[in-house]
């Protein structure tokens, strides 16, 4: 980035009724990164273990991304942050479209993990 603030700043939170270590394992799988973010090249700059990962982002965007896993009640609050800029000189309309695309993708990843990792478990109900 050129010192200017990021053009896209996506922030998302989703509760998953599983331990942080379970969610961390899903993000530790480098093969999953390609499925979650197929047009981004990620390089870990901070591995926080069960608290998540921080990446530098290149490819379709340039910037940083973070998954912070916060133990909460009987599960984990998945915090997602993407601060990045597309290449070139995008118009405000292009930036809004890119923001919407990335925000929807973040929620789809979170809900996909929720469905698989919770395996039908409701918050407050002990795991089987």
Automatic annotation (TrEMBL):
SUPFAM superfamilies: Bet v1-like. This is Polyketide cyclase / dehydrase and lipid transport.
């Amino acid at each position: 980035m050129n010192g200017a603030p990021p053009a896209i700043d996506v922030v998302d939170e989703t509760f998953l009724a599983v331990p942080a270590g379970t969610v961390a394992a899903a993000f530790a799988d480098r093969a999953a990164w390609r499925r979650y973010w197929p047009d981004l090249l990620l390089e870990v700059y901070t591995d926080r273990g069960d608290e998540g990962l921080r990446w530098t982002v290149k490819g379709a965007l340039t910037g940083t991304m973070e998954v912070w896993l916060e133990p909460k009640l009987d599960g984990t609050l998945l915090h997602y942050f993407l601060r990045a800029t597309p290449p070139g000189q995008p118009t405000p309309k292009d930036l809004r479209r890119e923001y919407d695309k990335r925000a929807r993708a973040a929620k789809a990843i979170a809900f996909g993990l929720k469905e698989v990792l919770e395996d039908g478990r409701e918050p407050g109900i002990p795991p089987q």
